Amino acid sequence: MQASLRLLHKSFCSWQHPPSTAEKLSRLASRGHLDEAVRLLRSNPSRDFPQLPAETYLSLIRSCIKFKAFSQGREIHKHMVNAGFEPSLVLLNNIMIMYSNFGDFNETLKVFEGMSERNLFSWTVMIGAFSKNGNAQKSLELYGKMVSSGVKADSFVYPLVLKSCGAVKDLRRGQCVHGEVLRTGLLGDVVVMNSLIDMYMKCEMVGDSGKIFDEIGDRDVFTWTTMIVGYMQKGRPLEGLELFKEMLNSQVRPSSATLAGVLPLFSDLGYLELAKQIHGLAAVTGFEYEKHVGTALVDMYSNCGGLCFGRLIFDRVKEKDVSCWNTMIKSYVQVNLSDEAINLLKFMQLDGIHPAKSTWSCFFPQSTKGKFSIHEFIKLIKCLEHAEVKPGVFPVTLLDQMCENIENVQQVKELHLFFKRSGGIADSSVGSSLIRMYSKFAELEPALEIFNFLGVKELDSWNSILACYAHNGYANKASEIFDEMRKTKIEPSVLSWNTLIAGFVKVGDFEAALETFSDMKWANQKPNLETYNLVLPIIESSTKSMMGKQLHGILLRSEGKMNRFLCTAFINMYGSCGNASYAIKLFDLMDCKDLVSWNSIISCLMKNGFLSETSRIFHEMGVAGVEGNTITWTTLVVGYARHGLVDESLKHFRELQLKGLKPNSITIASILPACAQSATLTHGKSIHGYILRNGIISEDLFVSNALIDMYIKCGFLEYSEQVFRRLHQKDIISWNTAIQGYVIHGRARDAQSLFYQMLDEGFEPDPITFAGVLSACSQAGMVNEGWEHFNNMDLKYGLIPTGKHYACMVDLLGRAGLFEDAKNFIFQMSLQPTASLWGALLSACKMHRNVEMAELAAGHLLELQPENAENYMILSDIYAKARRWNDFNGINRMMEDHGVRKLPSFTWIEIGNSVYSFTSENLLNQSINEEVDTMLLLLKETMIMVREGYVSEVTIMN
Prior knowledge:
mainly alpha, 54 helices
C-alpha cells in the first residue's frame, strides 16, 4: 500500500513538475537513445534553445563514444558551437576522444588547436590521434612541444611515444624516452616496458629488447608475445620458437596474438605433420577458431598442402574479417582454383563483408613481383560479371599495373564498361587509372568524360586529367585545368607542378615552363629532382638573359643558397646569353666545384671568345687537382677550331690522347673541319686512321660526314668518294656533302648524277641539296635543268626557296649571259635581294664584261656591304678591262675614303713534319724569305727521305 502511494506521489509530482530538457537529454543519453536526443536538439533553433549545463553535453558525448554514434556526436558538437556554449576542458577532452575514436583526425586536431588550456589528458589524446593516423613523426613533434610546455609524461603517454619511435625507427629519440622512463621510476610498469621491447625490436636493436625482457620480473602475455613476434619478424625464428617453449612452461598462457605470431613459422616450413601438431596446440588453448589464429591456421595449411584442412577451419572461424576471407581466397588462387575463389568472393559479400583493396591482390599474387597479365585480369572481370559479383574497390598498385600493361584502347574500353556497370568508376582511384589509360592512347574525350563523372575529385584525379592533356601536347588546356583545380581549393602537389612544366616543355614553350617553375617557388612548393631535371636543361639553353636573371633572383630569395647543379645550369645559361661576366661571378661564389662545373665555365668562356680567360681557368682547374675528362678537352678542341686557332685545336687534340683519354665522335667531328680549314692532309689522314682503328666510322655518321667534308676541302676528292661509297648507311647530310664536293671541284655533271642516285635510293632532298644542285647547274651552264630544279622545290617537294637558292639562279642566268632574265628574276622575286645574290650577278658581269649590269649590282652591293674589299676589287677589275680608267681610279679613291683595305690571303704548305703559313705581304720580310728558303730545303730533304721509305711524325709550327 505504501509503495503504491509513493508511486502515485511520484507521478503526481512529475505531472506538476515535468522534466527539464536537460533531464530528458541526460535520460536519453544514459539509455543510448541518441537519435531521439538529436531530434530534441533539432526541434528548437539554437538561439531559442535553453542553455544546457555542461554535464548534459558531457553525458551526451560520452554516450556517443560508448555507442559509437559518430554522426549524432558530430550533430551534438555542432549544436554546442551554434548555441555559443563554452565547453569545459573535460568536455573538450571527451570531444577529442570521440573524434579520434571515429577516425576523424582533422576534427580532433581542430578541437585541440582551439583549446585555450590543455592538461596531460589533452596532450595524450592528440599524441594518440597522430599515432593512430599513421603520422608518427607529428606524434613525436607534439610530444616535444608537450615537454617544452612543462607537462610531464606518464605511463599512458610513454607507450604512445615509444610506438611512434618504433614506427619511424627513431632510435635516438627512443633512447631519450627510455632515459626519461628511468628518471620517472616507471621501470616497474609492465605496459611501458613492453613498449620499450617493441620499440627496440622495430629499431633493429634485438639485443636491447632481450635485455629489457630479462629485467622484467613479472611478465604478462603481452611481454612474451612482443618478444616472440619480434624474433619472428626480425628473421630469428628459432630464438622465437625457443622463447615460445619457455612461455608454455611458465605460468603465462599464450594469447591468440601469440599463436598468430608463431604460426607463420610453421607455414614457412611447409611440413603438414608438423602443422597438425601446432594445430593441436591451438585447439588445446581454445583459440582454434578465433579469427586471427584461425586465419594463420588456414594460411599454414595452404602452404603445407593441406587446403582441405584449411577450409574446414575457415568454415568454423567466428567473426571472419577481410583478412580471413582473403587468406582462403588466396589459397584457392595458388592452386589454380579460380572458380572456387570467385564463389568464395560471392559468399563473402553475402556474409556482409565487402571486398577490400587487398582482396583483389589475392587474385594476382604475381603482381607484387612485377608480373601482371592484363589478359588474365580481363578474364577475371568477365568471370566476376558472370557470377554477379560486384568488385568494390581495387588496390592502387593493381590499378597502376593495369595502366602499365594495357596494350590497346580496346582493352581500356572493356575495363571502362566493366567498371561503369559495376559502379566502380565512381571510385576516384579507379577513375584516375582509367584516365591515365586513355591518355596512353591519346583518347582525350573519354578521359574527360570520366573526370566529369567523378563526384568527388581528389588530387589524384586532377593530376591524371592534367597529365592527359599535358603529355598529349595540349599544354594550354592543361594550364586551364591546373587553374581550375586551384580554384576548387585543391592544393597542387609537386607532381601537379611537374606535369604542367613537362607539358610546356613538350610543346617547346620554354618561357611558360620557366614561368610555371617561378610560380611554383612563389607558392612555397619545394621542387624535387624531377622538377630540376625538367627545368635545368631549359635554363642551360635559355638565350633570354633577362628571364634567366629573374629566375636566378627568385631562386636566391627562396633558397638562400643554390646547390651546385643549379649554379652549373645558370653558368651554362649565362654562357648561352653572352653574359660571361655573370657566369664567372657565379662560378667564383661556388663552394664546391666539381668537374661538371669546371667544364661549364670553360665552355661558357670558349663560346664567348674569351680564349685567354679560358686558358687561365683550365690552368686553375689543374692546380685545384681536378683532372679534365674527354668533355673538357673536346670543348677546348672545338672552341679553338671555331675561333680560327687551328694550331691550338690540333695541339689540344694531341694532348687529349697523350693523357690516355679516348676522343669521342664529337671531338673527332670537330677536329676534322680544323684540318680542312688549314688544308692539313697529314693530320686528317692520321685522324682517319684513328677512326678506322677504333671502328668509329662504321657506327657514327656524324664523324663519317665530317671526314668526307675534310677530304673535299683538302683537295682530295677521290678520298672523300672512297669514304662515301664505303658507308653502310647514309643520311641526307652524307649526300649533300658529296654533292657539294663535286661542285667545289668543278665536277657538275657528277653532282647531278649523284643527286638522281640519291632520289633513286628514296632520300628526300632538303634546301641544302638544292643549293648544291643549282650550283652544279650554274657551273655546267645547264639553264633548263636549273629552272626545273628550282620550280620542283615548291611544286614537288614543298620547299620554299631561300635567298641562297635565288642567288644560285642569278649566278646560273648570269654565267649563261642571260642578264635581262637575271634582272627580271631579281625584280620579280618575293624575297629582298641579299648581298650574295648581287655578288653572284657582279661576278657574272666580270666574266662577260657587262659594265652596265655590273654597276647596277655593285650599287646595291656596296650599299649592303660597304666594308667588303672584294666587291670594290671586282668592280675596279671590270673597269680596268673596259679601259675606263677614271672609274677605276674613282673606285680606288672610294676605298681610301671608306678606309677599306684588301685583306691578304693566307697560304698553307705542309712539308715533312711541319705546317707553314704565309701571305704575299710577309714574303717582303727578310726573315720570312729566309724561312721560305729553309722550307724549300726541308721539302727537298723530305722528298729524299720519303723515297727511301722514312716517314716522320707531323708537328705544328707557328
